[in-house]
Amino acid sequence: MTVPTGRRERKKAATRQKIADTALRLFLERGYDEVGIREVAAEADVAVTTLFSHFASKEALVFEQDTAFEQGLTRAVAERSPGEPLIPALRREVHAMVRHCTADGAAPIWRMIDESPALREYEDSMRLRHAESLAAAIAADPESSRSATACRTIARFVIDAYAIGREAADPEAAVDEIFRMIEAAWEVGGRP
Fold this sequence. Notes:
The protein is mainly alpha-helical. The protein contains ten helices and no strands. It has helices spanning 7-30, 37-44, 48-54, 58-62, 66-78, 86-101, 107-115, 117-140, 148-167, 171-189. The termini are far apart.
């Protein structure tokens, strides 16, 4: 995620972070379903309209890194070094995402998500959106000559690698194991 450079951008980023931090604290203290949007806005000392200018929904407050993760995946494809293979670039990005989501203090957040049907549904739709964005980036890659189906399939595998790795006892090893399979699938998908 890039650091905002202008004063206005820094102020907006700080407000967004304050809202997200406040929401997460309240959700963890009292339960996701027990906290309303108005309470989050009041506690963060912003108007409800300000909250909604930064977050499209209550669920989005929990998945505050959603856009950064999606952009990271597409950048891993589009901004890799010339000649760098696609799959290792995606593996690095997924490792970074998994490290972020398994850092100290993340377990209570994932328990909260697992216990909330609304949050699980939001996460599922978010993962599908990430997979579609990633598939589009892979298909647009000038070094890729794979079909749209192959691009969508690999993108789904990559997104699933993140989800499975995040839940594994040894996330790093799980991601590596999954990516060996993804690499094999990518190679098979490129054969005539």
